[in-house]
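Morning run. Coffee first, then this:
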Amino acid sequence: MITVTVEERELINEIIKKNKVCYVGMVDTEGMPYVIPMNFGFDAGNDIIYLHSGPDGSSVSAIEKNPNLCITFCTEPKLIYQHKDVACSYRMKCSSVICRGKVVFEEDLDKKREALNFIMQQYSKSEFKYSDPAVKNVKIWRVELDSISTKVFGAPNPKSPNYKDQDFAEY
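And here it is:
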């Protein structure tokens, strides 16, 4: 089995959309790595990920000090193997997307509502209205993506006698 780098934008967007949480890596105020799971919204047309949090807290303080983020998505892993008696043939089958960018906190109420809509579209087909007090109280993280890298793990090796054309979207 091999690891395949993916560059097709439709597949990358599909992998991101399959996720219910993303893992956000940052540097805390003491210079240590800090990773948290977060809900998100994805504006695929503009390469923007929206996150939200309370107005204060350790992650907000960390971002105010250093706005650089790494956001990781991973599809549900599945254990696979090429031969059940060969330990080295076992691998996790999944896909991951790693995004990097800088956070800008959105303050404009209308833009915050737009970001909240992207976030809610990730989880529901319903349309929502947001009260002014609720919108004022939420911290919206706008992350314009500087880079996106995607890998598919556990893909069949084309040199394997059992190789078949694979639809990498299943990963």
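The domain at 2-155 is CATH 2.30.110.10 (Pnp Oxidase; Chain A). Good start to the day.
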